[in-house]
Design brief:
- The protein has 351 residues and is α/β, with parallel strands linked by helices.
- The chain has 2 domains: 168 residues, 3-Layer(aba) Sandwich (D-Maltodextrin-Binding Protein, domain 2); 126 residues, D-Maltodextrin-Binding Protein, domain 2.
- Helix content is 51%, strand content 17%.
- The strands form 2 sheets. Strands 1, 2, 3, 4, 5 and 11 form a 6-stranded mixed beta sheet that branches. Strands 8-7-9-6-10 form a 5-stranded mixed beta sheet, with helices on both faces.
- It is globular, with a radius of gyration of 29 Å.
- It starts with a helix and ends in a 6-residue tail after the last helix.
- The N terminus is likely disordered.
- Pfam families: TctC (PF03401).
Length: 351
């Protein structure tokens, strides 16, 4: 009887100790998990130590072969070297760049810094003003406009016109005869719509998804005029002549082509053309900038270093992009983007 009672007391004591150790162990494990979560969350909140940890998509909202696509593919390997991961160019063309911009803003990867956009103004504003896109201009944050590329007008070498004014006069006298290829909702497209409205002319407007498609159509004889931008139009030097560039001075790419300042006396036409120059560069979501400031700084620093890399600069020289290239940084880029948006808002009736 005594032994039974003693054994019972021992068993109770052992049970109490086991329960106590179990609770203590659980408490220790729970604290360890919480501490780990806090460390992980702390890293994430600060922008993510080690970013990037996987490949980054560089989305281009145009078809392959255009000026924006070319610029993205030239800088991508240098950006990859700076970041230590692959930077994969993906063409997400359509709807005047709305498909690509929507992808950036809605994919989820954009807000984490794993999808960025090599895009353009005025296209971004055009999708909002003219197409009713369900995003705002300040949802997009530009890291830089490393190309500021004026509009350019190209025709066949044996075309009867020597500058844009002569072409406009011909269109006025022969409505519905001259076909003009444009990148949908690009600067050339908006500028021609502006001239149609201002001067009452009637060309045949043929919109394409990107500048590469415009040049292909032009070289194939499907349109009479290619209205694109200066840098990519360099690919047409041996097969065409330029009727003018939309700036207040001549371009080194087309030194024989008159500037719009030489062609037109109307200051409004000149200023409108200059305001519709294609500004190309990398954009991120504003949410990414605000929620991951450390990641944002890593990406911005890498982009600037990639842009200024001597081999990247040499490639821009070799492919004719250097005359329109510069590093202006996010503050100036976003100022230009907002200014362009205000300018385009004045022509909302043209959309």
């Amino acid at each position: 009887m005594f032994k039974t009672k003693k054994w019972s007391r021992i068993m109770i004591l052992v049970a109490v100790l086991i329960v106590s150790m179990t609770f203590t162990g659980c408490g220790s494990q729970e604290e360890a998990v919480d501490a780990g979560s806090q460390t992980e969350n702390g890293q994430e909140a600060s922008g993510g130590n080690g970013y990037p940890t996987r490949n980054i998509e560089l989305a281009v909202p145009f078809s392959a072969g255009g000026g924006t696509d070319l610029a993205a593919r030239v800088v991508a390997p240098f950006l990859a070297d700076e970041l230590g991961v692959n930077v994969l160019v993906e063409n997400r063309e359509g709807a005047g760049t709305q498909i690509g911009i929507t992808h950036l803003l809605r994919s989820g990867d954009g807000d984490e810094g794993y999808s960025v956009l090599f895009a353009t103004q005025p296209h971004a504003s055009n999708t909002i003003i003219g197409q009713g896109a369900e995003y705002a201009i300040d949802d997009i944050h530009w890291l830089n406009f490393h190309h500021i590329d004026p509009v350019a007008v190209n025709v066949a070498e044996d075309a009867p016109w020597d500058d844009l004014a002569e072409l406009i006069d011909y269109i006025a006298e022969n409505p519905g005869e001259v076909s003009i290829g444009v990148a949908q909702m690009g600067g050339g497209h908006i500028f021609m719509e502006y001239l149609i409205d201002k001067l009452g002319i009637e060309p045949i407007m043929v919109p394409y998804d990107g500048g590469g498609d415009v040049r292909t159509a032009f070289l194939g004889g499907h349109v009479d005029v290619a209205f694109t931008n200066v840098a990519p139009s360099a690919q047409l030097i041996d097969q065409s002549k330029s009727l003018g560039v939309g700036w207040n001075e001549r371009s080194s790419i087309w030194p024989d082509a008159p500037s719009f300042d030489e062609i037109f006396d109307d200051e409004e036409i000149i200023e409108t053309a200059m305001g519709l120059a294609s500004c190309r560069g990398i954009a991120v979501t504003t949410t990414f900038k605000e929620t991951h400031p450390d990641r944002y700084e890593i990406l911005l620093t890498a982009y600037e270093a990639a842009f200024n890399h001597e081999d990247h600069i040499q490639e821009m020289v070799d492919n004719g992009q250097m005359p329109i290239s510069q590093w202006i940084g996010p503050e100036e880029a976003n100022r230009i983007a907002e200014s362009t948006h205000r300018t385009l808002s004045q022509f909302e009736h043209l959309y």
